[in-house]
Amino acid sequence: MSQLDDLFARCKSEGRAALVGYLPAGFPSYDRSVEAMVAMVEAGVDAVEVGMPYSDPLMEGPVIQAAHQAALDAGTRQADVLRAVEAVAATGAPTVVMGYWNPVHRYGFRRWAQALKDAGGAGAITPDLIPEEAPEWLEACRELDLDPIFLVAPSSTDERIAVVGRTNRGFVYAAAVMGVTGARAQLGAGARDLVSRVRAQTELPVGVGIGVSTGAQATEVAGFADAVIVGSALVQALQRDGVDGVRRLSAELAQGVREGVRA
Amino acid sequence: MSESPDAAGHFGPYGGRFVPEALVAALDELTAAHAAAKTDPEFTAELDRLLTTYAGRPTPLTDAKRLAEHAGGARILLKREDLAHTGSHKINNVLGQALLTKKMGKKRVIAETGAGQHGVATATACALFGFDCTVYMGEEDTRRQALNVARMRLLGAEVVPVSSGTKTLKDATNEAMRDWVTNVETTHYVIGSVVGPHPFPMMVRDFQRIIGVEARQQCLDLVGRLPDALVACVGGGSNAMGLFHPFLDDTSVALVGCEAGGDGVETGRHAAPLTAGEPGVLHGARSYLMQDEDGQTADTTSISAGLDYPGVGPEHALLRDSGRATYTGIPDADAMRALEVVAKKEGILIAIETAHAFAGAFAWVQQQRDPEDLVVIVNTSGRGDKDVDTAARWFGLVTGEELAEAELVRAHEGEQP
Question: How high is the ipTM of this complex?
Answer without folding.
Answer: 0.95
